[in-house]
Inverse folding.
């Protein structure tokens, strides 16, 4: 939905510097799409106490929200609003590893919450992406069999989760130029192949 990688990267750079850790683009890109507790342990070590993991995760995301507040509209992937409007009769859900507060900020600032019948964040499931639990939960809430669901993803962890859930996966190249395992990969929601692919799939599934 949003091209948030550049802001997350900057937020991690600023936050990690407080602890003397210089953050490279490769470090952030490798962990993009994962849940924050996993990222914090990746950056600072598995030995970090759970309460410290939670505290660092919350502090970094508070910094992220400060950076994006008032800017969420400009971060939307091009064509998203029109795409959601064209498909407003289809049941749709948000399934994100992001912090609940981040998801709420995005949906409420942009007014897009009305487009979705279900919202599942990474802390409503036991296992985050790349585990398929979050997508299975979203399908359950929508009342749609996984085989009839289409996932839109911008990270390898998300693609793996969608695949493991038994769903079709469309890759959005906002962060990664290559997303192996997708059924279709597009730059954004303006791509003309997108609706054609969805129409063709609806006739056979």
């Amino acid at each position: 939905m949003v091209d948030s990688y550049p802001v997350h990267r900057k937020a991690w750079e600023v936050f990690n510097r407080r602890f003397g850790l210089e953050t490279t683009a490769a470090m952030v890109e490798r962990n993009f799409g994962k849940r924050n507790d996993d990222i914090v342990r990746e950056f600072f070590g598995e030995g970090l106490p759970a309460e410290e993991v939670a505290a660092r995760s919350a502090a970094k995301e508070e910094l992220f929200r400060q950076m994006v507040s008032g800017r969420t509209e400009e971060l939307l992937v091009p064509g998203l609003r029109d795409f959601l409007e064209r498909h407003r009769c289809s049941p749709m859900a948000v399934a994100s590893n992001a912090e609940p507060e981040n998801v709420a900020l995005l949906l409420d600032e942009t007014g897009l919450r009305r487009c979705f019948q279900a919202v599942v964040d990474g802390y409503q499931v036991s296992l985050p992406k790349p585990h398929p639990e979050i997508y299975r939960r979203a399908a359950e809430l929508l009342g749609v069999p996984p085989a009839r669901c289409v996932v839109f993803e911008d990270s390898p962890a998300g693609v793996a989760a969608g695949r493991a859930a038994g769903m079709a996966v469309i890759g959005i190249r906002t962060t990664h130029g290559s997303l192996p395992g997708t059924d279709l990969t597009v730059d954004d929601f303006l791509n003309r192949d997108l609706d054609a692919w969805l129409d063709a799939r609806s006739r056979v599934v």
In short: The chain has a mean pLDDT of 94. The domain at 5-68 is CATH 1.10.150 (DNA polymerase; domain 1). The chain has two domains: 5-68, 73-204.
